[in-house]
Amino acid sequence: MASINDISNEFVRNEIDEYIKEPDEREGLIATYAAISSRMQSIGAALVDGQNKTVDALTVEALADGVPALEIMDDGLIAAMRIVGIKFRENFIYVPEVLSCARAMKAGMAHIEPILSASGIKPLAKVVMGTVKGDLHDIGKNLCIMMLRGTGFEVIDLGVDTSADEFLAAVEEHEARLMGMSALLTTTMPNMAVTIEAFIDEGIRDDVKIMVGGAPVSQEFADDMGADGYGKDAMECVALAKRLVKEDAAQEG
Amino acid sequence: MTVKPMNGRERVLAALRGEAVDRTPVCNPTSVATVELMDLVDAPFPDANRKPELMARLAATGYTELGFDTIMPVFSIIQESSALGCKMQWEQKDNWPTVRMREPIWVEPDDIKIPTDFLTHPDTKCVLDAIRILKKEYGNDVAIIGKTMGPWTLGYHCFGVEPFLLMSLDDPGKTKLCLDRMTKATVDFGVAQIEAGADALTLPDHATGDLVSGDYYKRFLRDLHIELVERLPVPLILHICGRTLDRMEYIAQTGMAAFHYDSKNEPAEAMDIVKERIALVGNINNPETLFAKGPEEVRQEVYRNLDAGVPLVGPECAIPLQTSIENLKEIPRAVKDWHRDHSTPN
């Protein structure tokens, strides 16, 4: 079993030591970082520290030296976002810090995405994502989208203020079997139920798994309105999306 | 000590001053407007946010129909942002008007300009005129509460949420300068509402635990809020949604009369932090209780707050527009029943 001293980058080592307390997560991250190159660890360290210019430069440099884009995304960027996600969940950091890390991830992804798109890798699934009608907040939704894309999902982003009809149309047009709705306001949360009702009325509720999230949303609220799942944050959104895709595949037989 | 019977205004103002009351006031620091109430008095959104007569008529239902001890005519949080020049989405009857924060109007501190017509702009003037109407009609009986946005919320509206939060991390000094400059809008609109007849002001400033840390509140806002208490000479009710237990200690230091707090915070725990330094108000859950459940569940939440000694009771935030009147009426009903059950026989 890998130990924390197997991680060469001091910053990453300290981050894991100080902030990752849950044994499974700690063990998983130590194993991940012990197995990846010091170069990818440096990208990860810069990302966790919110240094977008450094991530940009190191990504360009690594690609120029022939490091595969997929390796940079998985080992350099996504692994670091796992640390960021846990720190956010445990209230060690808040949205400004997460936004800063997301900005750093975007700086790296800007170089990686075109390469991955051109390589024709099949996405895990298509996901339609949007903030519900009447709500113009999108930070949480955008973080989810970034993490979903980074994990291999194809995301159709409907933006903010999305009506039930727009969700319906997008799911049908893109033949998506997974959809995510976000709301930041207690006043707009009921529009999640309105949208789910619209899918029932159209007779296609069983054709799509619906996940919901947003600061005021809870598991109880999600259950009450008949959503298939609730994610507290972007990390949970990714885990939930993977689970729902599996369930969907199992149901399809 | 026996307290003589009070009307709504006396009750609310006494509670905000930390004085004895005949019973716990039912207070609405944000909005209890609903589609049902709009239909009842023919004052629908979006016009009820833009025409003073309709704004006053819809606001009054909080007292006349629901039996609250307050009237709050400012249903949304966008009136002054509209006057500052933000792009607006006024929506329809069944949705809230919002600021298009993806299209910010300011980037740098030097962009901040409070327009000379800030207080005569139709969307700020509407609030001032509505307060005058309400003061004249109900001012002796019920507390008229105004609302002026704090600089942090104005920052979200005028700079965009994401750019503003990133600025706070990248350049805290610049952010503080922006907050200082935007405070003029908060004070000007607040003073104008006081002159129009507001008995108290809600001051929403959304430095919520769902976005920023308690330390952020201390660093960027505590001293500014102390300053606002000095500059706005009526009781102020600070409103911050979401988790706020980690900043209640700092909030209690501001001198604000009350803190309007969210159901994500346990009443007894919150009371334990603030003690007698600031009155708590709110906490009745909107989406899961007032919107989705029935009067019995509403009653349980009211009792939980009263049992914890919370001095003013009300919904946690602006309620969903589809909330039923019956659930809202249950709040004052439950408060009265709780006091009847807890009264000491003479």
Written description of the protein model:
The complex is a heterodimer of chains A (253) and B (346). Chain A is of the alpha/beta class. Chain A contains eleven helices and five strands. Chain A has two domains: 4-119, Methionine synthase domain (Methyltransferase, Methionine Synthase (B12-binding Domains), Chain A, domain 1), CATH 1.10.1240; 126-252, Rossmann fold, CATH 3.40.50.280. Chain A has a five-stranded parallel sheet, sandwiched between helices. In chain A, strand 4, helix 10 and strand 5 (229-230) form a beta-alpha-beta unit. The longest helix of chain A has 25 residues, at 95-119. Chain B has 14 helices and nine strands. At the A-B interface, helix 6 and helix 10 of A face strand 3, helix 7 and helix 12 of B.
Write the layout of secondary structure elements.
The complex is a heterodimer of chains A (253) and B (346).
Chain A: H1 10-19, H2 23-35, H3 38-48, H4 52-64, H5 69-89, H6 95-119, E1 126-131, H7 139-151, E2 154-157, H8 164-174, E3 178-182, H9 190-201, E4 209-213, H10 219-224, E5 229-230, H11 234-252
Parallel strand pairs in A: 1-2, 1-3, 3-4, 4-5
Helix pairs in contact in A: 1-2, 3-4, 3-5, 4-6, 5-6, 6-7, 7-11, 8-9
Chain B: H1 8-16, H2 35-41, H3 52-64, E1 70-71, H4 79-84, E2 88-89, E3 98-99, H5 122-138, E4 143-147, H6 151-159, H7 161-170, H8 172-196, E5 200-204, H9 214-231, E6 236-239, H10 248-252, E7 258-261, H11 267-274, E8 279-284, H12 286-290, H13 295-307, E9 312-315, H14 325-342
Parallel strand pairs in B: 1-4, 4-5, 5-6, 6-7, 7-8, 8-9
Antiparallel strand pairs in B: 2-3
Helix pairs in contact in B: 3-5, 5-8, 6-7, 6-8, 7-8, 8-9, 13-14
